[in-house]
Amino acid sequence: MFLTYSLFMNLLAAGLTFLLYSPLSLASPTSPKTTCALIGKAISSSSTVFYPEDAEYSLGIDHFALSAIQNSTCSVEPDTALDVKIILRILASTRIPFAIKSGGHNLNLGFSSTSGILLYMTRFNQITYHAHTNTVDIGSGLTWDQVYAALEPYNVSVVGARATGVGVGGFLLGGGYSYKTNQYGLAVDSIVAMEVVLPTGQVKTITYTSDEDLFFALRGGGNNFGIVTKFTLRTHPQTAVWGGSIIYPGTQAEAVSTALLKYTTRVTDPKTGIQCTYATYGGESLVMVNLFYDAPRSPTGIFDDFLSIPAALLDVGTRSYLSLVQSANTNLTSHTRGVYNTISHTAVTSSLLTAMRNETNVYSNALQSQSLVLNGYVVEPFLPVAYHRGTSATAYPPDRSQAIHPMNIYYAWSNITFDDVMFDAARSSAASLRGSAVREHILGSAKYPNYAISGTAVEDFYGKNVDRLRAIKRKVDPLNVMGLTGGFKL
């Protein structure tokens, strides 16, 4: 089969006329293998295409959750924005499904994985600190622990993820809640500029002044508008911090809930941060609490109630910010199967915490015989002031008039046979907790995209912003090239 006219013109525009005279021109342009070969011939020598027989291929397709992994036809590691541009041109012509992977921490199958062409952004790993502007340029293929480590010698940090192994790209494009959110807003509020390869093949630096619409859309709007290769973020001074992790036996759940309610009603210090997880692990009930204070010592009275409860494990104290992030044992369930789901709520109440504990126990009992490893329900309270830190509108959250607390529902299991059972349980449990929030009139206005299960409607994230986002999408991606990749699609 000969090349289509559209493929001919796109290859010509990309400066790839030599391909027209290769044997590849006789193969079907819709074949994933042919597309991999086209990409391999077109990109520069600094970028590489890997196939299943290559050792590097396995690293490319790997994910935090085994259930999110797919065997791609090839894994491409682009090194430059120009090569990403070339790849997008080819994909626009061949219409082969593709995925973009940064850290591989998304649990939804097909969001950063594909049976088609995987773009593994790991070579976009540059970190350049600009002391004179208090900003840092970071590649979209980095993980946040890499960013924190690189900035540590300068005594600065950024608003980023609270767990190791989380990729820069997906986290920022989804909104980004952080230990520093109470002080500086969501991670998207710290974005100054983005280098983006647009579906039309242009490479642009997007700022508020250069393109207000696209700057709005990219900050929380997911991967609908192009491929971001570099972010410029504001930095903030960073001293040693205080905090870490506490694990309590399940018998202390009521005491922890009481401490959490007191914290949420009394603490107004924006330097604080907290996560509280009601969980079962191996059938045993427990409560995990992560504490944070952005100074070497925590003032008396803020976390005293938590510290007075008898714990099974206590790892808190003065440490570096990187050490604090590393102290959360988020890799406990790495390479099990997994699913997230979420609701949001506007207040933390005794009834809601009781409902979360009940859901933990109900689904632990129901799913133990079906290879459940861990189930957890995480409450993450933020101060109302956190939503007023941004200086311009963002795709997410659509409403900043009141605080919304994202709840993370997480199940990990070992047997592929029970995938559908676990997905259904995560959906049913979220629906139950949503009902609890509705009855108390505390249901939040928007779900957090980075915690949401596949199939969630985009209206649930973007609310009143959906029409504007769709209009921007039509403008920058008229051929719906980004519709060939997974994620929450507009």
UniProtKB/TrEMBL annotation:
GO molecular function, one term: oxidoreductase activity
Signal peptide bounds: 1-27
Domain FAD-binding PCMH-type: 68-238
UniProt keyword annotations, A-Z: FAD, Flavoprotein, Oxidoreductase, Signal
InterPro entries in UniProt: BBE (IPR012951), FAD-bd_PCMH (IPR016166), FAD-bd_PCMH-like_sf (IPR036318), FAD-bd_PCMH_sub1 (IPR016167), FAD-bd_PCMH_sub2 (IPR016169), FAD-linked_Oxidoreductase (IPR050416), Oxid_FAD_bind_N (IPR006094)
Residue stretches spanning the membrane: none
Family membership: Belongs to the oxygen-dependent FAD-linked oxidoreductase family.
PANTHER family: BINDING OXIDOREDUCTASE, PUTATIVE (AFU_ORTHOLOGUE AFUA_1G17690)-RELATED, FAD-BINDING PCMH-TYPE DOMAIN-CONTAINING PROTEIN
Protein name stated in the entry: FAD-binding domain-containing protein
Species per Swiss-Prot/TrEMBL record: Collybia nuda
